[in-house]
Amino acid sequence: MDPCPYVRIAVGDLALNLPHKPHLSFYSKFKLRGFPSQLSDLPCGGAVDARIHACFTLSKSELEKLVEKSAKFSCLKIKIYRRSCDEGSGCGLVMKSSKMLGCVEVQLDVKSIVESSGCNRVCPIRSRWIPIRSGADVKLHLNVRAEPDPRFVFQFDGEPECSPQIFQINGNLLKQPVFTCKFTFRNCSQRNSRSRCSISTSGGDVREERKGWSITIHDLSGSPVAAASMVTPFVPSPGADSVGRSNPGSWLILRPGYSAWKPWGRLEVWRESANVCYRFELIPDGSVDAIPLASSNVSAKNGGKFVVDITTGPTPMASPSSSFDFSSGCGSSSASGSGSWAHLLYRGFVMSSTVRGVKPVVEVGVQHVTCTEDAAAFVALAAAMDLSMDACRLFSQKLKKELRQPDLF
Known about the structure:
Blueprint: E1 6-17, E2 26-31, E3 38-42, E4 49-59, H1 60-68, E5 75-82, E6 99-107, H2 110-118, E7 123-131, E8 139-148, E9 151-156, E10 165-169, E11 175-185, E12 198-200, E13 206-208, E14 213-219, E15 224-232, E16 249-256, E17 261-272, E18 275-282, E19 291-299, E20 304-310, E21 322-324, E22 331-333, H3 338-345, E23 348-355, E24 361-365, H4 372-391
């Protein structure tokens, strides 16, 4: 399998030198045209925080388009904000009461980035102290560099519930079939009674019960290489019309064992207002405890991307008790046992998949694929997340016919 070339622009080693005011709290906002803004806490006092604070990923075609555009399209802007006293720590939102201290602009040499990517080399962009405001002794330290980030790219040839073929998109954008998938309802013989596959509400309405969904990934020889099985049904919370956080629906992502399927990961999904929230945990071999790898949300209406990225964001690598060493590319953590093992095995970009699309696209970091079963497990996870978007629809809404159990047609 040939990967597709990607490049990530990583910003790390941040520090703010603000003489005589080390007690103040600051955060930074990163903006590159065409990408959503990213936020990160900013240490004050001159000590460098050796981790990745922001990361922007570009495909080869996106880089080539930037080469043809004016310099303003390849300018990375970093705005520094001071928090007000009542905002506390954390940088989930840019508060109206925040005061901008200054702005730093870093011009990306896109041609050099493209050349380095073609040679599979890191391209240093900027690594030094930069004055934030003229005439003031306020400086920002940063390290900006471009790194090759090749990925295997797969695309479903239809919605997962329609059991489509799955193609790999090669570096030259050619498609070749690599997997097939089969969507089924488990325990079909037990579904002869309408009461077993429906939910009666207090108002007397009968709605489809979203349970027993399963999807199996096969290689081209027909052998099963991964599966996703709904183990906790998606049911409405008491007095509500949607799946709640207190009782999320869940899937087990399965890989072939010696004589039976073995669990590899658990995906939990629920709905909060207009968002579908998810949490993905890894289940290490022989371990009782699951290890959280991703937790976020996407729009219930418009979809978005399901992402597992142990670089920035609310993941074990970016938690207060652990960090990502920007200079060495290694994770460090005070935790021990299976958690540390997972940090060593999964780091950097792991995977992403589009949801709410007609043909979901799955990207997987090459360092996480050593065999066909590795790739298939991520594809099964992507399918489970896509199906969960339908499972999290309001129960007053009707499901697609492919997702409605046969005796409810």
